[in-house]
Amino acid sequence: MNRRASVLREMGLAPLWRLRDAPAAAEYTPPAQQHAAAAGVSEAADVAAAPVREPVGVPAAAARPAVMPTASPLVAPAPARVATDGLGWDELEAAIGACRACPLHERRTMAVPGVGDRAADWLFVGEGPGAEEDLRGEPFVGQAGKLLDAMLAAIGLVRGRNVYIANAVKCRPPGNRTPQAVEMTTCQPYLERQIELIQPRIIVALGRPAAQTLLGGEVKINAARGRLFDRAGIPVVVTYHPAYLLRSPQDKAKAWEDLCFARAALAPR
Ligand code: URA
Fold first, then answer.
1. 73 in a domain, yes or no?
2. Which CATH number belongs to the domain containing residue 106 in this structure?
3. Model confidence pTM above 0.85
4. Which ligand 1 atom minimizes the distance to the CA of 138?
5. In the chain, N or C: fewer CB atoms in 10 Å?
6. 60 to each of 4, 52, 54, 262, 267, how far by Cα in Å?
7. Is the CB of 133 under 6 A from ligand 1?
8. What is the DSSP letter of 28?
9. Is residue 150 part of a domain?
10. Number of neighbouring beta carbons within 10 Å of residue 36
11. 179 ligand 1 Cβ < 6 A
12. How many CA atoms lie within 13 A of 11 on its CB side?
């Protein structure tokens, strides 16, 4: 069995699905043009319709994604905005490492800024560091991280190569609880600066907190899946968090569809 086949099997996606070629550049309408054409229409019927699950190929909806405008990126009014304007990578990581802007810093071992290719096309955003990440200072190194690596491999990606991985909050929420809105809001300028520096061609929100940080307001994963959002000109796709997929492996195939959808939606450089 070749590597891809093993990876897909690892994700629980047998029988194997084969990716069609990514859409040719000429077929792909850049998000900005789609947005203009949509003239503020917030949902495209072909994308909102349930993707056709085919045993071979990308879901039909992935071929022609339409861009959804988003609300303000802020989740809630910021209590005290951390200053990140103009920071370069080293300064930004130092600022994250020294941050005391919210109570999460009190119990952290290490802040976890993010890892990967700083000029990546792909940015994956999770929720917040867990116990292992807190000890190692790197996102997604535990069980959920292993599944994330398998998900990346399933679409031909490798951690650190054309991929950057970050979290909505940079310090571990105690007991791995979901980060509170005020914590995400406080931490948000760090993620915003990372996005400005990376300028990814696609952002994949892993789970609800990440989606809410990136898109603003309430987001329901099942309603947001299969839709292409626009965040300051960068397409955003929402999928399940790998930790959820570990508990609900029956949804791995949907995550695979979402990644195929994201691949079809890569913004032009
Ligand atoms: N879950 C996340 O959301 N992020 C991590 O870094 C690890 C687990």
1. no
2. 3.40.470.10
3. no
4. 6
5. C
6. 22, 6, 9, 13, 18
7. yes
8. P
9. yes
10. 11
11. no
12. 28
